[in-house]
Amino acid sequence: MTRTFRNRVLTPQELDRFGEELDALRARTVAQIGGVDAAYIRRVVASVRYTGLFGRLLLYVGALGLALGGAFVPWMMVPAWILGTLLLGLSKILENMEVGHNVMHGQYDWMRDPHLDGKTYEWDIVATGDNWRRTHNYQHHTWTNVRGMDDDIGYGLLRLFPEQRWRPFYLVQPFIAVVFALLFEWGVAIQDLRLGRWLTGKTKHKAMWRKFVPVGRKIGKQMLKDYVLFPLLAGPFFLPVLLGNVVANVMRNLWTYTVIFCGHFTHDAEVFPKESVRNESRGHWYLRQLRGSSNLSGGKWMDLMTGNLSHQIEHHFYPDIPAWRYAAIAVEVRDICGRYGQHYDTGSLPRQFGEVVWRIVRHAWPSRPRGRRPLVRAEAQA
């Protein structure tokens, strides 16, 4: 791949102005937030509710058709199972990405709606909201792509940058990446537990148990709902409904994994050493967010299905602004980046995911860091 953009090194004055322009854009956008944003998120919440309801109803109808093999019911009842599974998967994707993720960033706290409170919202996956707010909202968004500070760099499983130290374990990471994608919600659930520290004796058993209790409680609740209670409502047709729930959750896992990895691990995404964030200015912070993020093109449907994380750059700049506004903000963000000679990484889903797959395969093998211009802190001193 040869499309790496050579970012212009900014002077300290340019870097300050870069940050000021992006801050001013944020202020103008925040001033516009109001009723239209509330109406939008309520429409999405309603869509989650009704696609989930109709999906489950069709799943029960289809389960009856599958169980009877079409002998005593119209053959159309079997495709109903497929449609029901797809609708349930769609509901879970929307809840996870457009509602859960964005609400937990506090994008709608100003509404004072207890059901959309970013500090207490609990989403429909096995991971707890509290752990996500800590590992993602704080650690990842504050220290984006800083080695040793951002646990989302490879999630402790994958080597995605040549700056990560290679170990023989990474030779099997193409296989691990596939399993991780299928079980993505489970990886998110145990991320904050840091099981490696417990297995090596660095975390005591009592401390691990205290951390696991809320996670175990959430896992139990989700498994009971999706894999016991809803299937039991189908009576003797338990197994087809159980299978539909499993497939819907896997759909959500695969899509979430794809979107998140395309937003952080494309060809031009960079990682940074700890010293790069020492005494970091606002302009430095924006520049690091820009160079560690990538966007997806695709229009309104792509924006909706990704929770507007198709605009990952804008999300990293403004994580607490209602995400549906990112598409409009992106026009000005891209212009600002262009005027300061900074690469604005965007591309189609096939291209961006192809670059992610290449990273996973390439860095399973020993590799040396690419030659780069100075990192952000050094650039400010140029």
UniProtKB/TrEMBL annotation:
The chain crosses the membrane at residues 57-82, 169-189, 227-248. InterPro entries: FA_desaturase_dom, Fatty_acid_desaturase. GO terms for molecular function: oxidoreductase activity, acting on paired donors, with oxidation of a pair of donors resulting in the reduction of molecular oxygen to two molecules of water. The keyword 4Fe-4S does not apply. The keyword Transit peptide does not apply. It comes from the Bacteria. Residues 80-346 form the Fatty acid desaturase domain. One of its GO terms (biological process) is lipid metabolic process. Pfam families: FA_desaturase. Keywords: Membrane, Transmembrane, Transmembrane helix. PANTHER family: ACYL-COA DELTA-9-DESATURASE, DESB, FATTY ACID DESATURASE 2. This is Fatty acid desaturase family protein. It comes from Lysobacter antibioticus.
